[in-house]
Amino acid sequence: MSDIHVPGTAEHSGGLKVRHNTMSSLSAYRFRGLFLLIFLFLYPTLAFFGPHQERAEFYPFFSWNLFAHSSNSKSDAVLLIHEIDGRRIDPPRTFYELTGEFAAARSQDIRLAKMLDNYVYAVLSNSESGVQPMKSVIENRFLADKSDVRYDIAVITYDPIERYKMGVINDVRVIASNHKVAP
Amino acid sequence: MTSVLRRFRQYVGWSFPSHGGFQSIADKVLQAERIIIVYYAASIYISAALVIEIGALTRDTAQGAWDFLWPLVWVDYFDANLVLELLSILTLVGALAALQFRRYRLVRLVFALLFFLTATSVNSTGGINHPYHAWLMTGFVFVLLPDGRIEEFSRASRMSYLTVLLTAQAMFMLTYTMAGLWKVVLGAVAFLADIPGNFSSMALSWTIANRSLQTGTSPLLADFVVLNPLVVWPGFLAVMYVQVFALVATFRPRLHVLWAYALISFHIGTWLTMEIIFIQHVLLLTILFVMSPFAPRNEEMSKLIRDLPLAKVPFLIAERMRQKVALKARVTS
After folding, report:
1. I want to staple A163 with a disulfide (CB 3.0 to 4.6 A). Which of A158, B68, B169, B251 is the partner?
2. In chain B, whose CA is at the least distance from the CA of A3?
3. Complex-level ipTM
4. What average pLDDT does this structure show over B94-98?
């Protein structure tokens, strides 16, 4: 794609060399122009139709569906903690509320929230192979601070403003109940 | 191919200002090389920050607690934490090499690949975050830059150089356009179904409240936005406009600087209302668009306004109405 210098041609046929270089760099320029158009078409195609392999996206392509859905009724996959090291949490609290218990809750690591969406999808599509690695990450990374935790993966439904102001949750649907025990 | 390009240019309103011929292109290429230098210099900082991030991740993550994405599945066969730390340090070295030897494609390619693997590792602990996606794609696009000293480039090589830069700009703005289209399409679907959605005056308030609830954050302006939906609604509509037409703005160089600052303001806004800031995007907007070699200097404001997407619509409607009135007057007389 760069200028091609043909060895041995410069001394004997300088004019030919110049013509050859100009032609090759001109076709390289055309290739790059074409690449621009192909890329603009290919990126969204791969983002939407690439092999997702039970994940929300085909990394490193992404559909850029970020906070695109506003509504007065939202559903969210959450980690509901019932018990920590034999101590009951009553009523159960969501993971991110327990900043005093878990470092990842203190740092508000959004990767857990995103993974829970994938977890729910894997459970609902009966994909045991999809669930196990995520369960391992939840217990060994996000719940790593405690050795014994009883928790649910649940989908909660709420009006964002009502919940923001008064903490109202309209519906809780438990997807999976798990117990992390020390190895 | 030329005809395809020409049609594409006409379709998006591609109107690169043409002051001067050869000299202008030579100047633009010099400016473009400055952008490449700043990109790789900034990559050093971003890679160094990744070294720290990977260090913290490996401290907090046991061997079995990684959920490796496809580019890193091979790491499971080794001491994962050691491999990832080494990769991050190699990426930093790669960024230094890419700055120093930026005129060699192989060096740029090695940096892009190393950055790809390191960015993959921070996304292998559960869900995928997106701050590095555009930086990574830019690195891969820059691999296509012509090699060699730009002072010795032919005109076609200079045009190649600028086309690669334009591709990086277009690729980056495509991400915003996709984000904007999601909002507009889902908003339109809700509007047609007569249910609350993105075009409701409460839309931004719902989104901000929901985000705060998801991870328990308390951003500086979250309360204000949630409690004053009508005040912030125009801002949300403006965000949709700027995002949807980001790709179009790429091909209208007069809009480069304006769109860069509009999107940087959007990122500052997401920090104030959601505690999300895409620092890498702010940097890329500055490098690719505030410093854009295609943006004309000292351009007239009226030309800039005419280039705004949809700006011609009110004039077209007024003209159509004027014609109708004139026709009616002729018929009655």
Report:
1. A158
2. B157
3. 0.86
4. 98
